[in-house]
What we know:
This protein has 151 residues and is of the alpha+beta class. It has a single domain, classed as Immunoglobulin-like. The chain has helices at residues 4-21, 33-37, 41-47; strands at 54-55, 59-62, 66-67, 73-79, 84-91, 98-103, 111-116, 122-130, 135-144. Strands 1, 3, 5, 6, 8 and 9 form a six-stranded mixed sheet that branches. It has a three-stranded antiparallel sheet with strand order 2-4-7, with no helix packed on it. The longest helix is centred in the N-terminal third of the chain and has 18 residues, at 4-21. The chain is extended, with a radius of gyration of 20 Å. The chain starts with a helix and ends in a 7-residue tail after the last strand.
Amino acid sequence: MQTRREILKRSATVAGLLATTGLFPQYAFAFNKAAFDAKSVADAVKAFGGAAPVESKDVTLTAPDIAENGAVVPLGVATTLAGVKQMLLLVEKNPSALVAKFDVTPAIDANFATRAKMGQSSDVYAVAIMNDGKALFAKKEVKVTLGGCGG
């Protein structure tokens, strides 16, 4: 029967071995400052290596017509296209247009949902960046009500 002290000692030893062998990642997330500093949709797409965005029916954006609470606006992005590298959600009038970036691999479906904060009514964009650099988007205007009175 092992004591609590022995279990903690062995756990610390295993963690130390994993850290020295490089099995723990050095950085959990890659931060793209240019993308978060972008004030327009085109600049955010360019920061991720995409060309000028072109509207497409193959990219689907799910968003409410009217958001009663701008602090938690449900947004979704999806596509059935093959060769998608990244999916972006952008809110045009937010201080930072980029809301979310999703990396896509062949092992997963390109179908994502999240919640975003919107300070005012704005156009919302769902952008699919393809492996060849093409950028395809869908756009929808979302009206944010202030206190439930319209905005």
